[in-house]
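Review form for a predicted model. The reviewer records the input and the model, then writes brief findings.
Reviewer: anonymous (R2)
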Amino acid sequence: MRTIDENMTDEIFDQDPYVFEFEGAVTSVNGNEVILDSTAFYPGGGGQVCDTGTISGHNVTEVFRKGDDIIHVIPGHNLKVGSLVWGSVDWDRRYDLMMGHTAEHLLFGSLRKNFPELGIVKIFISPENKYVVVDRDVSWEVIREAVKRVNEVISENVSIRKVTMQRDDPELENVRVDLDKVKADDVTVIEIGDADSAACSGIHVMETEELGAICVDRKVSAGKDGIAIHFKIGWDAINTSTELGSKCIEVSEKLGSKPEDILNAADNIRDQTESLKKSVKVLLTAALKAIPAESVNGVNVHCGSFPTADNKIFMDACEQYRAAGSVAIIISSGTSSSAFISSGSAKVDCGTVLKNALAKFEGRGGGKKEFAQGGIPDPRNADALLEDLFKSVKKALS
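Model under review:
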């Protein structure tokens, strides 16, 4: 007969993350939440999401720690305390997460070698997304060098060791660790040759060659936290690198440059675009100041349509016309159309006029009596919107 220890769960995943099937006994049941005396289900941690799988044929949708307990969420189960169960972790998912977590260690460790002051804010490892948030922007040159180094370490098939160190061990100076976040006296450290050494209680692969390859496919703002560097591993990394490389070559051909010169070509296009934007702004500002007026009962009404640009240019023009006692109706169009209306006459309520007009074209917007703005999704209705606004203003001034 199996002896059940209700006070402690045997954490198989910590002993051997390659074990994904196991036998256990139920020690506690609280609705959909089940506790076992032994489990291979990793409850998540260090930015890595939890395992999923089945227990005695029932789907395990979530696993998490609650104090000293590991909770298995099993909707609709019929398990009882004392029941012997057979657990099966979704291995493909588990292995992907193990590889992703190990790759994150290597990537950040390599980034730090070229950018020592770089700090880590957050890690997220799931089947769908894998990224590390760092506290400042990192150039693509630094990222390329880091990825190159990681792939070298992968090809060298470096062994990965999990060791335990005391928090007063002087060797911890060589480890990436925030002791303020470590509650125990023992510190679990993941060592990957001389590539990286970091405190971590997560689960990892045994050798770097298991990762296959790594690539960084994008970096995006993470708001106040910093920059999120997204990466892929294994065949996903190889396929993504191949696809992006092919697109890079295709873009270079369209730009009339060699692939190795594509960055210079992009810089030239950027500079030319900025120059054109400045020229367009000057010309557009002049055109907005010279919109022809139609007098309606002594009030000048200025109507005009223009290509899309910075909204501030149109808002400034509207304010100038309003300050002069006139009414301005301006439409700007690109992939959609925006409308701006201002009035220096008390007879015209811009907010009401614009709201009524936008409703006819599935648009949205609003504002106050003196000024309002909004937009419509279909730029083909821009002229009709302008005409409708002018008719409403004319009626208000009559």
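Findings: Residues 262-289 form the longest helix (28 residues).
Further findings: The mean pLDDT is 93.
Recommendation: see findings above.
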